[in-house]
Amino acid sequence: MNLDKTALVLIDLQKESNFDLQQMEQVIQNAKTLIDGFRTKNIPIIYTRQVNRADGVGLSLGEPLNEDGTPYFYNSDNDNVEIIDEIKPEDGDIIIDKYRWSAFYQTSLDLMLQSLQVEHIVIGGVVTDGCLFTSVYDAYFRDYDIHLVKDICAASNEGAHMSSLMILANWVYNLKIYDTDNMLKRINGEAYNAWESDKVDSLHFTPENMREVFHNIE
Question: Chain centroid to CA 206: how far?
Fold first, then answer.
């Protein structure tokens, strides 16, 4: 992985808490550790924010609404659209606002990555089965090498989190999966461990064996 052609992309690590996401304290701490490590290497850091306009313009069909008709999630009039304070952007970081789940859909993310001559995307964020999931697929469709940091991802329930990561592992052919510690080892030139599939659709799972199979990517 050429660090001069690498960027860290953090998906929707915002103050929004209506999803009741699991293990967010761990996610935030791991993200902070990762960000600090990437800053020491002068690797670009890109944050995305999901934003739903308070006036309802541009909302996805069926977007949940409050009784007064304003968006329930990521309301632009609410401070919850801001990045979590512990990991907030610094001068020089890039912030991409988006109006659909994928960080690439009708945003400037691809343009920014191309301008930075990025080939390798290190990615994580929330929610695993929504905005993170669709963003990884869209990055793959645009021919980026994808390095997913699984312990800075979270969903509202264990099944959604595990199944989403395993689906990505099965079908994003160039995907590599790390934890925070091993990703930092990699950018520091140290020996590291990462999961990488050796064949297509390698993780067959059922509701009964999901946890057992999930351990294969740990």
Answer: 25
Q: What is the mean pLDDT of residues 109-129?
A: 98
**CA–CA gap between residue 83 and residue 16 (Å, rounded):** 9
Which of 128, 31, 138 has its CA nearest to residue 83? 31
Contacts of 209 (CB under 8 A, 6+ apart): none
Contact, 20 vs 160, CB < 8 A?
no
CA distance 135 to 128: 10
In the chain, the domains with their CATH numbers are 3-217 (3.40.50.850)
Given a cut of 90, whether residue 20 has pLDDT beyond it is no
**173-183: pLDDT as tens digits:** 999 999 999 99
Strand order in the sheet with 176-178: 94-98, 45-50, 6-11, 120-125, 145-149, 176-178, 195-196
